[in-house]
# Entry
Amino acid sequence: MAPDALTVVIDCEGDGVDELRTALTPEDKPQFIERRNLSGDVATWIVVATLAVQSISPLLTFLAQWRGLTRVKRIKIGDIEIENPSAEDLELLRARMRAAVP
Amino acid sequence: MTPDERAVVEEVLRAQLGRTARWRAYDRELDSPMNIVLAAAEAHLGTPFTVYWGEDGLPEIFCLQGFSTPVVAFSTRYVELWADVRGALTTDVLGPELAPRPIEQLALRLIAEFSLKENDPEFAASTMLRSSMAGEGVSFLPNSIASLEQEPIGTPYMACWFYGLAHELGHFVGSRADATASKGMSDDDVLAGVDSALDRSSLPASVVDEARTSARSNRRGYILAPDTLRDEVRADLFATSLLFETTVRIARMIADAPNEGDSERRFNIVAFMSEMALSLNIIAMLERCRRTARHACEPVPKREHAIETLLHPVAVGTRLTFVRWYLEVAAVQYVFGDHPTQQQRQQVSQALDEVMENLHPAIEAAEKGLAAAMTVSLDRERRGSFLDVLEQWRSAHATEKVDAVDVIAIEQFCALAASLGKSSQVFDSMRDAAKHPSTPLEMRVSGTAYSCPWVVGPDGFSRPFGLDTKHGHLIFIFTHDSAIYQPFCESSAELLKEGYSIASTALIANSERELRDAIARHVRTGKEFRLVIEGSEDFTMLIEELAADTIWE
# Structure
């Protein structure tokens, strides 16, 4: 049986996270994790949220149309993982997920 | 931390360190030098944190804030690489002529390993093979975590194992951002450090001018912005002071223990100052290799990434200015107490000058070796294909057995690639070649096959053939069974300068984007081009224009 909710993990560069915050609601239980290392680069962000399956399609649409998409280095939804996703990748994923939702 | 939160932490670590990396929360009950460092850090920070010890993954040390307690990921692979770089920088058995060679070899290995995180398996595999061919017979044996555990617990041990960890813990100080932590680190103080580091650099004047202006704008995230550097300086100062305190403490514990007498374990303030300066240079080298890997693998490199790669040594130079200031103050107090005379201060300052001076030849050799590795990695028009590099590697080993160290290094590299989920035929091929260098190469690939005319020329020049037309720079791609491919290659060859010729290259791609990225990685950075693929309307129209000679300006 398909799960009702899926964990979404998004790795995002720098200040892109500010706009990403607006795409998630408190019901998604988002966690914004700041990652720093020895390099001296600006912190990157890892956003972890639990989304109802029906909420994933709008999120993917937001990301596909977002001008900051190049700041997304990785997205993982359930077991599907895409590195450096393009708008087309996200549209394909959205279509696939919509088909999977009964 | 709740079980749910722990599950999220593990999900994040899996993504950052690799699927088959192993990690565990570090046992704080162990009687170990690490726990002495962690206890001292916790006392200073006044806040608990969790350290995850990671093995068999990417060389990464990083901190995560946003959980109920902050997390630091500590990778043993990073410690091994730190020791490798330190070994190359501190060797005294090679003269100035030979010293850059093993550093070039090591830098190529680091670039290859860091590039596994990117999406260009061909580059990663080729660079690993180039590393195996570099060095011209001079190379260092890589360190292993097991051997590093047996090293005497002195200043080099403490820095190698814990500088990165202590630096990351220092980022938890930054979040408090109180007045004391920022003392002596005003925007003007940081900018003075940036100016001084820029003055010492050999960067072109235009780059220096742009860097000064951008630093003063304090743009969020800019590598030389005071806000960015201040965070790193705080973390460096925390790391330096923490290691000072704990190295002295451990040295005293060892001195008090029976069977003491090992001079390597005694605390020496000059050796400590030297090690701290060396540590920042090790970070600089590791990070430049990481940035080179990122830049080399990006199909269209971002200008900001290129600038950051160029300016990273300046950022580290600025950080070193502050670490030096701290060392001077701390060393004076350690040696002469709370009320030193002016002469005593000068004595310590001179000792620090000598420390920096003594490091200079090693840094110079490192710069040469690193520059050679970066040139090879970043010159897209001389990169060649994976098959070219593999062929060179096989020729180099045709008459002799492959060194066992090389075979192990290649196997470990391929295992790391697998752990990161980077499956590619290139890794299988290089592993097969390392085991059986004389066996003919067999590659099994999946995807659509294309043919592309390739220009080859002197000094390893190798890039896709392109035409400058009124439609821009066009690169024609043909289906593998194209009837017009050969005639196109023959006519194209006539357009080339003497010394250059056309070779045929097969490309395998699963999408147009993949094909475009593969081509882009062999075209000079900044050069715009348009891909024209056989079967498209564009292709038919442009080939007709080419035949009618109306394609030109």
User: Anything to note?
Assistant: Chain B has a mean pLDDT of 89. The beta strands of chain B are 22-25, 50-55, 61-65, 71-75, 448-456, 462-464, 467-469, 472-479, 501-509, 530-533.
